[in-house]
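Q: Given only this backbone (267 positions), what sequence would you predict?
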């Protein structure tokens, strides 16, 4: 997949929008996953010498490298303006009621990544017009303005925070709990290749992946870092922000297993 990272514009009030009810179409759902890709390149990048392994245990995800480990207990992200773009459209441009872009959510909305044994977690489903969609557009959003007052009141830990991760960091046998937060605000445009096809009367799912196994590596990718060292003003802040953006992917996933249906081996 190809990605573009843009600056975030002004926030909109929260609203859940469904597709055009006057048109036939299919049921389109959006899910989240933290599962690693199945591609050979991804397999080579993880679990080999000099790279981290990522395993699930109970309701947590464990990232290990050498004698160091990170036990991830929760990952929460604030998203807004989640849209799918038709193949013939240049840009959604966050236009309210734009029939060319299917709007899941205007936002902000707080989502939790599935950890442990859960492959995916469905965020929202809408009735979508039949057609082909080739891009998922959304914004990782830092709530802070008066427009987000209701959201902040409901989620006070996310005042000025777009991403929050909790867990335990262990280095050479020494353990410490951590809370990592990021004020990352960026528009993400993830190309769907091949395009996602929505057909009349058919349920279709697109899964958004945030590969947390790659987030907490040092700049050279040679060791795990304490996630707390990537908090605002800390030495690894920019390294982890870049890794989060690079970890984002999206794909068709009708079987909800957290992997791209078009790249899975067939029996």
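A: Predicted residues:
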């Amino acid at each position: 997949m190809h990605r573009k990272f843009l600056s975030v514009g002004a926030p909109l009030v929260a609203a859940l929008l469904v597709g055009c009810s006057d048109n036939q179409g299919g049921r389109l759902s959006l899910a989240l996953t933290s599962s690693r890709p199945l591609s050979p390149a991804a397999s080579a990048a993880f679990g080999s010498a000099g790279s981290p392994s990522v395993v699930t245990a109970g309701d947590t995800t464990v990232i290990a490298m050498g004698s160091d480990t990170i036990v991830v207990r929760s990952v929460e992200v604030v998203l807004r303006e989640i849209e799918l773009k038709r193949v013939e459209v240049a840009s959604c441009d966050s236009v309210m009621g734009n029939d060319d872009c299917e709007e899941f959510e205007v936002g902000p909305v707080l989502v939790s990544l599935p950890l442990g044994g859960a492959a995916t977690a469905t965020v929202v489903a809408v009735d979508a017009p039949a057609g082909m969609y080739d891009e998922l557009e959304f914004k990782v959003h830092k709530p802070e303005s008066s427009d987000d007052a209701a959201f902040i009141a409901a989620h006070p830990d996310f005042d000025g925070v777009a991403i929050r991760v909790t867990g335990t960091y262990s280095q050479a046998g020494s353990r410490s709990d951590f809370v990592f937060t990021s004020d990352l605000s960026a528009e993400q445009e993830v190309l769907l290749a091949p395009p996602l096809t929505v057909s009349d009367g058919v349920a279709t799912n697109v899964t958004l992946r945030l590969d947390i196994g790659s987030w907490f590596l040092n700049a050279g990718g040679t060791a795990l870092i304490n996630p707390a060292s990537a908090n605002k003003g800390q030495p690894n802040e920019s390294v982890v922000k870049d890794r989060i953006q690079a970890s984002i992917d999206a794909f068709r996933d009708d079987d909800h297993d957290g992997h791209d249906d078009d790249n899975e081996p067939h029996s």
